[in-house]
Task: inverse folding
């Protein structure tokens, strides 16, 4: 069919071709073959369903659609692989970087896990190409077609079979071509003209287009607004918990009579973490109330780090450690201490306290340079330490040993100290100190 | 629109009638025009049957209830469901897998039977494709609202958002699902719409009312039925069918990965992908029968959708139903044969645990009822077919329920717990059927429910042996 509708004479109808109707599909295919044999080239058939043989009869070239679809599939494959590699495989220091998110030590980019999405995108891209390729190759959608002026042609989608010879054909001549069509069995022959009117785009289409263009601008603008460096609040359709009604510290408020956003602590409350010192320094810190609270609550590692500076800081004064237990010493407490010691301490210090726990043994066998072997609890120096000092070591740690304040509560720490004392006693007791009935019989 | 298989090359070869017996299109004096008249008059009838109005009224109300429940869920949160620890998935995922499965028969009829040149598909494929689209719509709703804050469902897509500062995890089966179901919905829609273009053009050419003419004119994209257009169209349709075939198999395979990639006993099996696909096709064909049997009665399509069509579908149901039954047996066998006590417990618990009733509903509906189709009298009686298809739908829903409820016994006894659906769960399942039937009834009312062009082509072949 001719598409040269942009003719120069706006009032005069221009002949586009002739349309001939045939009674049946067979007749149409036969007529098409005869017409092309006769020498016509710009010929087209119209039928309500696809006809076998008409492509050959019309000498139509094969469509390139399968190749387009193939290219679509390859594109889909590449897009999927690049997308997955970019999104989960790389990380850059800018805003739309990918995001490396390792799970269970699986590789960041693992092809087997990426196959499902790749497969789906190959299908998706191929299908979209097949669909839109069909429209593109057929020149659809078409808003205007002069063929629809023909009353008869409306049967083409029902049971009409038509042959069209375009006026642009070299052999075309209105009367001769019509006669030819009649001679090969056409039931009717009708010339189709383009009636050129002052064709204008309807106003409502313009309106729809303008609204559509405006709507199409929203997503890129939104992305731009979300990605920008503006300090004003972000555009949020749903705020969720991004912004909350709240008072910030050190600001004013109309809510309270004193105009302060922050509240003073009610009388009698104790600030978090300050309860222990206020309550019982002996029990919670192992220090006599009149003693000096040296590096209270500072983990041992940090204390030594401070000491190791260029100018050796003066060693902090030794506090006045508690010499006796601030808890009641019972058999029960000792048992509790043994249990806790075996759980928390024995892995490094060993069950007997000689510093031969499993972790230590393993670290030494691996020659771990960073490992500090724990002191034997039976060292003279340790045995002479007051209980408060041992308690402090358990609480805040020393050298490599972390503080166990958070894992073991104060009562249990004292139980462990008691058990440590018992352990030391067990290795250094003289015969006199052992009750008569427990001494080995000679 | 298959021509290649009859490309004898030489049109002078005398017509061979033996290949179609009995005729695919029955009835005296059936012409191209009479087919157009039959099919188009359904969409053009200014006074649809009263049954349509009654059905539509009910379906639309149920769909409205579904919408209201979704609204309530969005305002309140997913706590309105019975989902709990350890059954975090509950009914939403059951409904999702169920609906996705329903959709599969549509694509299978359209694409696979098309590729195998099964001409009996022509009068039922439009129906089945529409069913696919609407089932996928219902399916997509459930994971969409199951994410909790549904307005963030777009986080599943690889979109650049600085708000999130991270990308979706492409090694997760749940994300594969997004791509699989998204692609499936898109391709099914394209396939359905593309198949409909020539028939929409028929409706356009017959339309009297300007609004109808405009609407069908817009939808038919200026289709004329030119030989050149048909050539590209057939190629594109064949390609879409060829693409949809592996797609339909992949979709339910990926849905099954949601389960199979987990470490849970009873789920962590390689049988899941084929078993899920067979189940999906099985349930889909069940639903096609459920819809087709009453529709051909109401719309007077018995000469187009013949008993032979229905019989063929029953045969596919026997095949897929037997596969599903075989899979149930295999699961038990493997649990015993593997010697894995967790696996064994999972299956014994399915059959005799707290949800034994669901398991046995599933077995009786899915294993026993399709076997009745071996009897010729059963598979040629529309009434019995309809009843059995309902059983299949019920059974396949319970199959997904049983699989999900395996969650109630985890490895750790500390996380054991039973799932109890709430009223909202139950109403939402019913509501999704309302949505499905509303869409379907609208489709019956306004679009060509039989692929006219394809039926005419088959008629042409029968008459002339092309």
Result:
């Amino acid at each position: 069919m001719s598409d040269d509708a942009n003719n120069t004479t706006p009032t005069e109808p221009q002949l586009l071709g002739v349309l001939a109707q045939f009674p049946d599909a067979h007749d149409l295919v036969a007529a098409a073959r005869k017409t092309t044999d006769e020498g016509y080239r710009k010929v087209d058939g119209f039928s309500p369903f696809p006809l076998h043989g008409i492509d050959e009869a019309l000498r139509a070239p094969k469509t390139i659609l399968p190749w387009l679809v193939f290219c679509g599939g390859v594109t889909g494959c590449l897009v999927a692989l690049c997308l997955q590699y970019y999104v989960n495989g790389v990380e850059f220091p800018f805003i739309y970087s990918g995001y490396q998110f390792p799970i269970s030590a699986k590789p960041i980019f693992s092809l087997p896990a990426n196959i499902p999405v790749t497969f789906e995108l190959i299908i998706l891209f191929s299908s979209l190409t097949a669909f839109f390729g069909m429209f593109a190759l057929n020149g659809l959608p078409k808003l205007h077609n002069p063929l629809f002026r023909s009353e008869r042609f409306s049967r083409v989608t029902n049971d009409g079979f038509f042959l069209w010879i375009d006026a642009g054909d070299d052999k075309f001549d209105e009367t001769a071509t019509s006669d030819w069509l009649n001679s090969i069995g056409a039931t009717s022959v009708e010339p189709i003209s383009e009636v050129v009117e002052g064709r204008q785009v309807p106003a409502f289409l313009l309106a729809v287009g303008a609204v559509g263009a405006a709507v199409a601008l929203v997503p890129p603008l939104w992305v731009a607004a979300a990605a920008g460096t503006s300090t004003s609040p972000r555009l949020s359709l749903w705020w969720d918990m991004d912004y909350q009604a709240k008072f910030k510290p050190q600001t004013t408020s109309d809510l309270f009579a004193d105009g302060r956003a922050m509240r003073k602590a009610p009388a009698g409350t104790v600030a978090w973490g300050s309860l222990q010192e206020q309550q019982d320094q002996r029990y919670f810190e192992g220090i006599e109330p009149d003693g000096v609270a040296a590096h209270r609550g500072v983990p041992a590692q940090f204390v030594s780090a401070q000491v190791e500076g260029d100018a050796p800081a003066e060693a902090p004064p030794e506090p006045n450690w508690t010499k006796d237990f601030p808890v009641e010493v019972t058999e029960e407490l000792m048992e509790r201490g043994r249990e806790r010691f075996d759980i928390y301490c024995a892995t490094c210090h060993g069950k007997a306290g000689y510093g031969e726990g499993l972790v230590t043994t393993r670290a030494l066998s691996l020659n771990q340079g960073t490992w500090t072997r724990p002191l034997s609890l039976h060292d003279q120096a340790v045995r002479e330490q007051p209980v408060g000092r041992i308690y402090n070591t358990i609480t805040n740690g020393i050298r490599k040993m972390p503080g166990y304040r958070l894992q073991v509560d104060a009562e249990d720490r004292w139980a462990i100290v008691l058990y440590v004392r018992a352990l030391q006693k067990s290795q250094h007791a003289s015969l006199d100190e052992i009750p008569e009935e427990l001494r080995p019989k000679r | 629109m298959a021509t290649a298989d009859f490309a004898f090359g030489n049109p002078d070869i005398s017509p061979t009638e033996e290949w179609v017996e009995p005729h695919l299109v029955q009835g005296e004096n059936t012409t191209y025009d009479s087919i157009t008249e039959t099919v188009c008059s359904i969409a053009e009838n200014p006074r649809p049957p009263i049954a349509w109005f009654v059905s539509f009224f009910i379906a639309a109300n149920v769909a409205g209830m579904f919408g209201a429940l979704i609204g309530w869920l969005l305002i309140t949160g997913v706590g309105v469901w019975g989902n709990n620890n350890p059954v975090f998935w509950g009914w939403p995922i059951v409904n999702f897998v169920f609906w996705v499965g329903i959709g599969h028969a549509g694509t299978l009829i359209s694409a696979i039977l098309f590729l195998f040149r099964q001409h009996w598909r022509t009068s039922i494929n439009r129906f089945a494709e529409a069913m696919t689209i609407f089932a996928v719509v219902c399916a997509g709703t459930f994971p969409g609202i199951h994410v909790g804050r549904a307005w963030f469902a777009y986080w599943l897509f690889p979109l650049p958002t600085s708000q999130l500062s991270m990308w979706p995890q492409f090694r997760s089966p749940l994300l594969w699902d997004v791509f699989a179901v998204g692609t499936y919905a898109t391709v099914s829609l394209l396939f359905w719409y593309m198949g409909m273009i020539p028939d929409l053009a028929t409706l356009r050419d017959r339309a009297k009312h300007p609004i109808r003419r405009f609407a069908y004119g817009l939808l038919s994209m200026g289709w004329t039925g030119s030989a050149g257009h048909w050539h590209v169209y057939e190629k594109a349709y064949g390609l879409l069918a060829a693409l949809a075939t592996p797609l339909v198999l992949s979709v339910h395979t990926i849905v099954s990965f949601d389960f199979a990639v987990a470490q849970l006993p009873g789920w962590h099996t390689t049988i899941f992908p084929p078993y899920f696909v067979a189940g999906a096709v099985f349930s889909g064909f069940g639903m096609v029968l459920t819809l087709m049997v009453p529709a051909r009665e109401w719309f007077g399509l018995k000469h187009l959708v013949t008993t032979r069509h229905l019989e063929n579908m029953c045969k596919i149901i026997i095949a897929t139903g037997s596969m599903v039954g075989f899979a149930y047996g295999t699961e038990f066998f493997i649990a015993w044969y593997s010697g894995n006590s967790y696996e064994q417990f999972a299956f014994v618990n399915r059959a005799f645990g707290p949800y034994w009733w669901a398991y046995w509903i599933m077995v009786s509906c899915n294993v026993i009822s399709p076997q009745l189709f071996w009897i010729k009298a059963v598979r040629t009686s529309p009434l019995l077919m309809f009843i059995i298809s309902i059983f299949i739908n019920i059974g396949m829903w319970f199959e997904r329920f049983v699989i999900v409820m395996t969650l109630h016994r985890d490895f750790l006894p500390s996380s054991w717990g039973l799932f109890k659906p709430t009223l909202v769960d139950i109403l939402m399942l019913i509501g999704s059927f309302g949505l499905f039937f509303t869409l379907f009834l609208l489709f019956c009312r306004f679009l060509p429910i039989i692929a006219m062009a394809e039926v005419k082509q088959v008629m042409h072949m029968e008459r002339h042996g092309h």
Chain A touches chain B through 75 residues (CB under 8 Å). The two ends of chain A are 125 Å apart (CA to CA).
